[in-house]
Amino acid sequence: MANVTVIGAQWGDEGKGKIIDWLSNRAEIVVRFQGGNNAGHTIVVGDKTYKLSLLPSGVVQGKRSIIGNGVVVDPWSLLEEIGKVGAAGLTVTPDILTLAENAVLVLPLHRELDAMREEAASQKLGTTKRGIGPAYEDKVGRRALRAIDLKDLNSLPAKIERLLGHHNVLRKGFGHPEANAQALIAALREIAPKIVPFIGSSWRQLDAARRAGKRVLFEGAQAVLLDIDHGTYPFVTSSNTVAGQAAAGAGVSPRQIGTVLGIVKSYTTRVGEGPFPTELKDETGEKLGERGHEFGTVTGRKRRCGWFDAVLVRQTCITGGVDGIALTKLDVLDGFSTIKVCTHYLLDGQKLDHLPADANEQARLVPVYESIEGWSGSTQGARSWADLPANAVKYVRRVEELIGAPVSLLSTSPDRDDTIMVSDPFMDR
Ligand code: GDP
Ligand code: IMO
Ligand code: MG
User: How much distance in Å is there from the Cα of 127 to the middle of ligand 2?
Assistant: First the structure.
C-alpha cells in the first residue's frame, strides 16, 4: 500500500476537498504542504457542508492532521476556522492537529501589502488578498516569523524590527503609514498561548508514521496552472503546487509521496486574472457556471468557465507528476447535447500541442475543439460505472486518451458518497 498525494491539475477548485475527504477514510494522517488560507476546500457529507482553508480535509473524518512547514499560516484565521468547524460539531484539538514549528506566519501586514499591490497595479493579478504572496516573499527573504517564534516571545521585538525595516520602506512607497511594531507584538503575545499547543514537528511525526507503516495522504492546494514555476506566470500563486512540493513542504523523502492523484474538473474554471484559452464568455459559459455553482469558496467571486482543455491537463499531468486522475463534476455536463474538448491550439496559424511559456503567446492562443455527443440520461449521484450513460463513459474514455493518464476516481455530486472508484489510488502500482 502506498501513500497518496493529491494535487489540483487545472486552475484550482477542481474538488480536491471532496476527494481528499473521501480518501482520508483509508489514511491515518492527512498533511497540507503548501499554500495558505487562499485555499477553499469544500466537503459535503449529507446535510453538512464544511469549507476548509487551512485545516487539512482529514479533520472531517477525525484523522490526525498536519499543517506542514511549506504552508504559510495566518494564526488568527486558523483559530477562527477551528472555532467555525467546532460550532459545526468537529473538535480540533492539539491531539489531532499539529502545526509545523517551521511554518511561516502570515501577519496583518502581509494582507495589507497584498491589497496595496493589487490596488496600485495597472495589471491586477486578482489575488485572494490573504497575504499569501507577501508572506512567501518574506520567507524567501529570510525575515519571516515562524510558528516556533511564538514559543519565544522575548525574541519577537528584534525579529519584528528586522521585518518592519523591510515592510515600512514598501508601505511608504505605497503612501501608507508605517506598521505599528508594538501593536503587532501585543497581538502576537495575545494569540501565542492559543497557538503554541498545536506546534510540533511535521518531519518527526511523519518519520514515526513511516516506521509504523501508517498511510499518509498529502493534500495539495491551488493547482499546477497556478504553480509559481509551471503555471501561467505571473498569474499564479506564490508556491509550488506540484506533487514534488509535498516532500519539501512536509519534510519527507520524495519516495514517500506515493501515488499522485491529479484532480480534474470535467470542464475548466478559473478565478482571478490571467490567460484562459477555452474561456466561454457566452451562454454556454454561463450555463456551466450555473450548473456547477461556480463561485469562489474563499472570496465569493464568480469563476470564469469554459470547455475542457486537454492540452493543459496533458501538460499538468507531466509537470505535476500525476499518475492518475479523479475526474469531478461529470454531472455538470448532463443535458448538454454537444460537449467540446480542446485538443490543440493555433498560435498565429501554427498548430501547438502545449501551453507556451510566454504570457503574450498564451493570450493569443486559439483553441481547436473536438465535438463529443452528450448524453440524455443523468450522471448526477451515480455511484457505479454501470449507472453511467454510454456517452458519459465515452467522454471519460476520450479524456483519458487525450491527457494520457487513467481515471482512477469519478465524482458525480458534491456529496462524499457520490464517488466511483475505478482503481484504488492507495494500491502500489
Ligand atoms: P477545491 O478547492 O479543489 O477543494 O474545490 P472547491 O471546494 O473550491 O470547489 C469545488 C466545488 O464543487 C465545491 O462546491 C464542491 O462541493 C463541488 N463538487 C465537488 N465535486 C463535485 C461533483 O462531482 N459534482 C458537483 N456537482 N459538484 C462537485
Ligand atoms: P484551492 O485550493 C482557485 C488564485 C487567485 C489568483 C491567484 C493568486 O481552493 O483550489 P493568491 O491569493 O494565491 O496570491 O492569488 O491564485 N487562487 C486560487 N484559485 N483556487 C484556489 O485554491 C486558489 N488559491 C489562489 O484567485 O488568481
Ligand atoms: Mg477551492
Answer: 7
Report pLDDT digits (tens) over 325-376.
Answer: 999 999 999 999 999 999 999 999 999 999 999 999 999 999 999 999 999 9
Tell me the ligand closest to 269's alpha carbon.
2
CATH number among 1.10.10.10, 3.20.20.300, 1.10.300.10, 2.40.280.10, domain 104-195: 1.10.300.10
Q: Where are the domains of the chain?
A: 4-101+199-256, 104-195, 264-421
**How confident is the model over 17-39, as pLDDT tens digits?**
999 999 999 999 999 999 999 99
Q: Is 3.40.440.10 the CATH number for 4-101+199-256?
A: yes
**pTM, full prediction:** 0.97
Ligand 1 atom 6, closest CA: 13
| Nearest residue by C-alpha to atom 12 in ligand 1 | 15
- Report CA(106)–ligand 3 centroid distance (Å): 19
Return the residue whose CA atom lies nearest to atom 14 of ligand 1. 42
Of 27, 149, 133, 13, the C-alpha closest to 426 is 27
Index of the ligand 1 atom closest to the CA of residue 328: 23
Residue 225: name the closest of 260, 275, 159, 288 by CA: 275
Looking at the structure, give the CATH architecture of the domain made up of residues 264-421: Alpha-Beta Complex (3.90)
CA gap 208, 203 in Å, rounded: 9
- Residue 182 sits at φ, ψ, to 5 deg, of -65, -40
Write out the catalytic residue numbers.
13, 41
Ligand nearest to the CA of 381: 1
Q: How far is residue 58's CA from residue 253's CA, in Å, rounded to a whole number?
A: 22
Q: End-to-end CA distance of the chain, in Å?
A: 9
